[in-house]
Specification:
Lyase, Ornithine Decarboxylase, Chain A, domain 1; globular; nine-stranded mixed sheet; alpha/beta
Length: about 425
């Protein structure tokens, strides 16, 4: 736990608000999920989901820990290459890949999972031009997640997801690929955006992968890719109870795969792609109380951060938090119900809803936990600059992302007078 004076010193040097990254917690999470699966099946690859938090420092840490990069765009792919990831340790997913992207992935030996027929046609054209080369590709499967009671486990309770190839298209795809004898399907991928993140979901995905592999590609597969969407360590303050652990997921997935003799005979690598499960609880957000207000019966703590910094998806659940006061005795007084509201001009900008706490005042800090997933990548450049991200090193705190400044906002905009621009219109 940080002291008031420590947070005050940090805010003086790096500005307020700011994020704190816990490298030890991330390393623990990475090793624990890899070990949970590794104890049950030796050929496991952890591919970190860049889209969840592509802070280069974290991506570098994954590389040093032996993880792969799971990317879904050229932006993320270029980042992986920039920080030194080997192409063979990059898993390239996502629904939109340009011809240039696909050619780069194929020529350099990335694990490329195709999502559409357009991408498949691009690969076959590439294969014709490189007839003496074996072309390895993966296919993303569209997994049905309707349980025996007719309940959908997809986001928004959709009857079917929009990603990957449906089961009814696989015969056509297999026939299509036979026309290109130098193409080998070496990967099946089946990430699903599930609301429940339940063991039933992952058992269904594992079964779909095994059955599809055995039926269509029994002699060519090197990888079965479960995707991500796992729960991480439980945060009771957020209402998460009885969520599966890393061991629960590993038990369920590996037991299901081992039911299939084909899997035991072929022994492909098992890929998992955790994002939130690795990084969510490794970052906290520190924001300073600007003022305290009472309007009607509402008590409000106005802080210099915003809900975008904590929960950009705008859910109403409260994250775990602590108050770091200049005067610790204030925590011992009368308790009141406060809402912590942010620095934007939006009524819904509420970081914490109706919390029960003691007194606090201007200059005190709120430290809000479990903010490592999606906050950095989804926070828009809106009203306030993006805060610094800090990690504690041997010499104190260091910025692994600097606080955003004016130039970061506006350098890509034209600042010319409209009267002087060649594209200006007359009115």
């Amino acid at each position: 736990m940080s002291s008031y004076e420590e947070l005050k010193d940090i805010s003086r040097e790096f500005g307020s608000p700011f994020y704190l990254f816990d490298q030890q917690a991330f390393t623990r999470n990475f090793n624990d999920i890899r070990d949970a699966f590794g104890r049950r099946y030796a050929r496991v690859i952890v591919g970190y989901s860049y889209k969840t938090n592509y802070l280069p420092y974290i991506c570098q840490l994954v590389r040093r820990l032996g993880g792969y990069a799971e990317v879904v765009s050229r932006l993320e792919l270029d980042l992986a290459l920039k920080i030194g990831c080997q192409p063979a340790e990059i898993i390239f997913n996502g629904p939109i890949k340009s011809e240039e992207d696909i050619h780069l992935a194929l020529s350099s030996g990335m694990i490329l999972n195709l999502d559409t027929f357009r991408e498949l046609e691009c690969v076959t054209a590439y294969a014709r031009e490189h007839g003496n080369k074996e072309i390895k590709v993966g296919l993303r499967l569209n997994v049905v997640l309707i349980d025996d009671e007719g309940k959908s486990h997809l986001q928004e309770a959709l009857p079917a997801g929009r990603f990957g190839f449906p089961a009814e298209a696989l015969d056509e795809i297999a026939l299509f690929l036979r026309r290109s004898p130098n193409i080998r399907v070496h990967s099946l991928h089946a990430h699903v955006s599930s609301t429940s993140r339940s063991l039933w979901v992952f058992r269904t995905i594992a079964r779909t992968l095994a059955e599809t592999g055995e039926r269509y590609f029994p002699d060519t597969l090197d990888y079965l890719d479960m995707g991500g969407g796992f729960f991480g360590r439980r945060a009771p303050a957020m209402g998460l109870i009885d969520t599966p652990t890393y061991d629960d997921y590993a038990d369920t997935i590996c037991a299901e795969l081992k039911k299939h003799p084909w899997f035991e005979a072929r022994r492909p690598h098992l890929i998992i792609e955790p994002g939130m499960a690795l990084v969510a609880d490794t970052m906290s957000f520190v924001t300073r109380v600007f003022d305290v207000k009472k309007i009607g019966e509402r008590r409000l703590a106005v802080v210099d951060g915003s809900f975008y910094n904590v929960k950009p998806t705008m859910h109403r659940r409260n994250h775990p938090f602590e108050i770091i006061r200049k005067n610790a005795k204030n925590d011992e007084g009368i308790r009141e119900i406060y809402s912590v509201v942010g620095a934007t001009c939006m009524e819904k900008d509420c970081l914490l809803h109706e919390i029960d706490c003691g007194e606090f005042g201007r200059g005190d800090f709120f430290r809000i936990g479990n903010v490592g997933a999606y906050t950095l990548v989804l926070t828009p450049p809106f009203i306030q600059p993006a805060p610094a991200v800090l990690v504690k090193g041997a010499q104190g705190y260091e910025a692994i992302r600097r606080r955003q400044e004016f130039g970061h906002f506006f350098d890509c905009y034209s600042m010319g007078d409209p009267k002087e621009l060649s594209c200006a219109m007359s009115f």
